[in-house]
Write a structure and sequence with these properties.
3 domains; globular; 32 helices; Cyclophilin; single chain; alpha+beta; Leucine-rich Repeat Variant
């Protein structure tokens, strides 16, 4: 601990000398980095990355061309093998700033505690007249991914960075945030993030990271700073800061803070901030919020209306169930009405059997009437998941449906029922008998071989809280189903089944990994330039994506090939999470579909630090295929985990309008004018 304090103190002195002195910089080796997709050596490095040929990639670490060194080091940020640590540590001394910065980032991606000392030494041992804060910033972030708890306090204690030291402040804030991603936080770290998020003098990008920490970090105490944070909600001009601050304020319960949230909700123009304020209301007294909630069930913005309805599901009261029923009869959007019905079922006591039956009957009627609109009907199916008695009805109404989206929603509702707190309270001594009936439904789905319902069913069986281990006498149905799956196409379902088998047999689970199976199409990339764009035409309008062909070429080539083959035509956005993402590209339309190949994750130093980033959806490292998403807002918890292959440059208003079931008409690849 004392050693780290000494190092940090030395570091601060060195930085202040550098920043405030007039010593001219020393001569550096200046070499341009011009990696192009047409370069055969560059292609070779990427092909080795794709095949996970670690030794072959490492050979380029000593290449005289810094562009090749950079490509090789970036490859290790994606491969994340500990076998590359020693070589990456050596690259921390590379004369080219881009290369050594990439090495620091790659070491952070690997996440090994043993890399902390060399990272710290690389920071400290630089000539103080030649410090490059891009490199230092990345080192700080890497320490956040690798360091222990005591080092977090040391790092958070650094308060000497000036307001203008944007890169160093970014490094510090990202480091503290990355610690929180690993479930590590301290009061010193939280206090530092309060300062960075609340003080309007700090750079905006730093405030966004700090505010997201306050929103997402678990088990932190902000009670002593709550009014300062609330003032930041009012004073921040950037909605990216306001929306995160709003979520942070759900961690306190002071009535005066609620008044600030309510006042901001009324004047707020950005729907994303309003959605997060509605989420924050859940931490405060129901009676102080319910009128405002009910008033916005018919909000003109569907995301806000749905957030208000979700409040009723999460925080509604038994005494107000009759009020909810009256709102369900109004002319509301189906998704909102379905959530209101869900709230009624959730908050009605289990012994209100007749009342539950009436609501259930209404939901079943909607499901039947809306079968031709499955992305609407699925919300009524989901509502049945709040009623334990509906397990027997879900089979006929949804799970045995010939419509994939409804069938999958039915299994998800069944999962919610059997894993819910009210299940045992409802069935009591009959709980195991009902679980066996549900097991029979699951077995039927395994016999039918549907990858979506099997994946969800396997998830039910592997859930320790449900407790199927002692109820399954024969696991042959799981073994037989796994044997019939096609890899890599059905890797997600395969691993869910393997996880269930491991749980049932009380053995350690190890996920299957996709092997190399889909080479990068370099012919496609030969047509890509910095001006290449994708125009996504939807039923709500068009939006334009700038593609990052030089940064994540494998993902871009895959996307372009799919677009040119008309694969995306008439595909739906099957997943929309308000103020998070829209997701499409699934051939099944329920999130469990793919083609008969997978591509590799590409994870160089890119950040989800704004709205509109386009990323590849995945079920884990190197499982990407055809599904992709667009972010509604900054999502730093996705950094380094999900490939970024583009950014929306026009039409974000269209992205914000899209709801589940909206269609991609087509995707057109062209050069930007």
């Amino acid at each position: 601990m004392n050693r780290y304090i000494h190092i940090i103190s030395w570091l601060l002195m060195a930085l202040m000398i550098t920043i405030n002195s007039c010593v001219p910089p020393s001569n550096e080796i200046i070499t341009d980095i011009n990696n192009a997709n047409s370069d055969l050596v560059y292609q070779g490095i990427y092909n080795h990355q794709d095949k996970q040929n670690i030794d072959s990639v490492l050979l380029y670490f000593n290449h005289s061309n810094p562009g090749y060194r950079l490509a090789a080091v970036n490859a290790m940020a994606s491969i994340q093998s500990e076998l590359s640590i020693d070589s990456l540590v050596e690259i921390l001394g590379d004369p080219i700033i881009e290369v050594r910065t990439a090495a620091a980032y790659a070491l952070g991606q690997i996440g090994n505690l043993e890399t902390v000392d060399p990272l710290m030494n690389a920071f400290v041992n630089k000539d103080t007249s030649d410090v490059d804060n891009v490199f230092n910033s990345t080192i700080l972030e890497a320490i956040g991914k690798t360091g222990n708890k005591s080092l977090l306090d040391v790092l958070a204690s650094v308060e000497s960075y000036r307001i203008t030291d944007t890169l160093l402040l970014l490094g510090q804030s990202r480091a503290i945030y990355r610690y929180a991603n690993r479930g590590i936080n301290t009061q010193k770290g939280t206090n530092r993030m309060v300062e960075l998020a609340s003080n309007q003098a700090y750079p905006n990008e730093v405030r966004v990271i700090a505010a997201n920490y306050l929103a997402r970090a678990k088990d932190i105490d902000i009670s002593k700073s709550q009014f300062r944070i609330a003032e930041a909600l009012i004073g921040a001009s950037d909605p990216n800061v306001r929306m995160a601050i709003a979520l942070a304020l759900r961690k306190v319960t002071e009535p005066d803070i609620l008044k600030i949230l309510q006042s901001q909700f009324i004047v707020e123009k950005d729907y994303r901030v309003k959605v997060n304020i509605l989420k924050a209301f859940g931490s405060y007294k129901y009676i102080d919020n319910i009128d405002l909630i009910l008033d916005h069930l018919d909000d003109e913005n569907i995301h806000v209306a749905n957030a208000a309805a979700q409040y009723l599901v999460d925080h509604g009261k038994r005494d107000h169930v009759e009020i909810y029923k009256t709102f369900a009869k109004k002319n509301l959007d189906h998704t909102v009405r379905a959530k209101i019905y869900a709230s009624v079922l959730k908050h009605l006591p289990s012994y209100y059997i007749e009342s539950r039956a009436i609501i259930r009957s209404s939901l079943l009627r909607y499901i039947k009437e809306l079968k031709g609109k499955p992305y609407v009907a699925k919300h009524y199916v989901a509502a049945l998941g709040q009623d334990p008695y509906s397990y027997a009805y879900l089979k006929e109404a949804a799970i045995d449906s010939g419509v994939v989206t409804i069938r999958t929603a039915g299994m998800e509702a069944l999962s919610k029922i059997v894993s819910g707190k009210s299940f045992v309270n409802t069935f009591r001594f009959r709980s195991d008998r009902v679980k066996i009936e549900i097991l029979d439904i699951i077995k039927e789905q395994f016999a039918k071989g549907d990858v979506g319902t099997m994946a969800i069913g396997a998830g039910i069986l592997s859930n320790e809280k449900i407790g199927y281990r002692n109820l399954i006498q024969n696991d042959s149905f799981l073994i037989a189903a796994a044997a019939k799956l096609s890899l890599p196409r059905e890797i997600e379902t395969y691993n869910e089944i393997k996880k269930a088998l491991a749980y049932i047999n009380n053995v350690k689970y190890k996920a299957e990994k996709n092997s190399y199976n889909h080479p990068i199409n370099w012919k496609t990339l030969a047509t890509v330039s910095d001006s290449t764009i994708a125009v996504v035409r939807t039923n709500k309008g068009n939006f334009t994506i700038k593609l990052f062909g030089n940064t994540t070429p494998g993902s871009v080539a895959n996307f372009i090939d799919l677009a040119n083959d008309d694969f995306f035509d008439n595909k739906v956005y099957h997943r929309v999470v308000s103020n998070f993402v829209i997701q499409g590209g699934c051939p099944r339309g329920d999130g469990y579909g793919s083609l008969d190949y997978s591509i590799r994750s590409e994870l160089p130093q890119l950040y989800y630090d704004d709205e509109g980033y386009v990323g590849m959806a995945s079920a884990g490292l190197n499982t990407e295929g055809t599904q992709w998403f667009v972010t509604h807002s900054p999502t730093p918890h996705l950094d380094g985990k999900y490939t970024i292959f583009g950014k929306v440059t026009e039409g974000m208003d269209v992205v914000h309008q899209i709801v589940e079931g909206d269609k991609i008409i087509d995707v057109i690849i062209s050069l930007q004018r």
